[in-house]
Design goal:
6 helices, seven-stranded mixed sheet
Length: about 190
Amino acid sequence: MIVLASGSPRRRQLLEMLGLPFRVVAPNVDESREASELPEGYVTRLARAKAATVAAHERGAVVLAADTTVVMRGTIFEKPASAEAAAEMLRQLEGRKHQVMTAVAVAQDGRVEHELDVTDVTFRALSDAQIVAYVATGEPLDKAGAYAIQGKGAALVEGIRGDFFGVMGLPIRLALELLERFGVPYRFTR
């Protein structure tokens, strides 16, 4: 059985969709970014830390973790602290291309491996009224970059180049590859 080191309902939903047996253990990791840390290093460090922290208390278990951030021109767009912050993020992203970076890590008994997915997402031009209306749905408030591509936020998107599931928070292909390296191959079930 896999241990999912995440409190994300979207990651749980994706593992359930695949029919993988798992249980959830929320990791306790400091998620603050180091001053000179690049976005790729930041998400990779957090995913590895989440997996390793939970694996240290789960002997023998295969632990899966991930971390996602939204980046545009070197600026990291984390989860907004308020509706106002969400609206400001969306104003910056509207009509532009940005990257969604999701690092996936798997750990077991001191061994940790990771992979990084980078997907380009382009937002369509949006009016301020559209941004305010989307924020009012409440959907952007717990999402990196202030949108959920699998929800109403899909209406913000003009195009995507890369892994849709990576934008959701768990690039399935990379997660399955890592799990296989740890002796957990994917099997289709009914």
